[in-house]
Each structure stands twice: as C-alpha cells, then as structure tokens.
Task: inverse folding
C-alpha cells in the first residue's frame, strides 16, 4: 500500500486531536472529490514498518485521542490487507485510543473486512455533490454516516455529532 501523508495532529478528521494517515488509492471517483491526487494507488510512498513505527510514536502522546485512516480509500482493494494489519497493531498496542476509518464504500458492503474488527468509528459512503452540506460534522454529504462500529453488530448504529 502507498500513502500520501501522515499528519501528527489534526482536529478536523474526527473527534479530538488525532493522528491522520492518508492512504493512496480510490476507485470510487466521486464527482466533486477534493482529493483526486489520492486516487492513484501508486501515488505517494510505500507504507512500511518505519511508517507504522511513526504512527505508534505519535499515538503515545496523551492529548492524542486516536487515529483516523482516510484517503483515498483505506478499503481500496489493494489497501485492505495492510490497513487490517495497521488497525490490529494499533488496537493491540493502544486499546484506549480510538480508530476512525473513512471509506467511500457502504458500510454494509465492507463490514466483514479485517480492518472493521478493530475500527471504532466508520464514516461511510461516496461523496455526493447534490447532498453536499458544509454544516455536517466530519463528512461532506448527508448520505455519509458516522457509524459506531463496535455497537453495530445487529443493526447499524449511527452517531449524531452534528
Ligand atoms: S471516496 Fe473519497 S477520495 Fe474517493 S473519490 Fe470519493 S470523495 Fe474522493
């Protein structure tokens, strides 16, 4: 998997101060996407053990609430195995930090992937220009949901953070 960048602390990609990993690769190609440079899975640089170590070092800081994995799409088929490993490692090493994951796929279509086992919050769905709403918290269009993954075993539980 390639990644575009790692942010050491951000307030705009989920609740609280967060480390953010921007993955390369997205096949959704939503009209109006602001991150088209992330579509190419070969953009950016390879994600290696060195980057995983960096994420762990950044997560140690007490003011950091967790990590957000976005893109691109972390669940682009070529990213799924690596993102599964990243989320597993982080959840095992930092059980009190939360993991947010953004994907253009519908949650119901990806919920059984390894990465979702360790994800606390999934923001799902394509960006839809006609449903764009700048007042929404942590998402661009009103079809996208902020899902409480660990409490969505039987039915999808959506968080209202607006
Ligand atoms: S899923 Fe995200 S990165 Fe991919 S095209 Fe849609 S808005 Fe852009």
Result:
């Amino acid at each position: 998997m390639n990644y575009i960048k790692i942010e050491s602390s951000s307030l705009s990609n989920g609740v609280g101060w967060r480390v953010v990993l921007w993955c390369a690769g997205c096949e959704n190609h939503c009209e109006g996407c602001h991150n088209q440079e992330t579509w190419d899975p070969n953009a950016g640089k390879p994600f290696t053990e060195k980057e995983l170590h960096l994420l762990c070092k950044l997560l140690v800081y007490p003011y950091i609430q967790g990590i957000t994995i976005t893109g691109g799409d972390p669940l682009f088929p070529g990213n799924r195995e690596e993102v599964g490993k990243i989320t597993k490692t982080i959840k095992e090493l930092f059980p009190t930090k939360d993991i947010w994951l953004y994907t253009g796929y519908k949650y119901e279509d990806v919920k059984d992937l390894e990465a979702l086992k360790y994800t606390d919050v999934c923001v799902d769905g394509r960006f839809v220009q006609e449903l764009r709403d700048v007042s929404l918290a942590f998402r661009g269009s009103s079809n996208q949901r902020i899902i409480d993954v660990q409490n969505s075993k039987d039915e999808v539980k959506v968080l209202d953070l607006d």
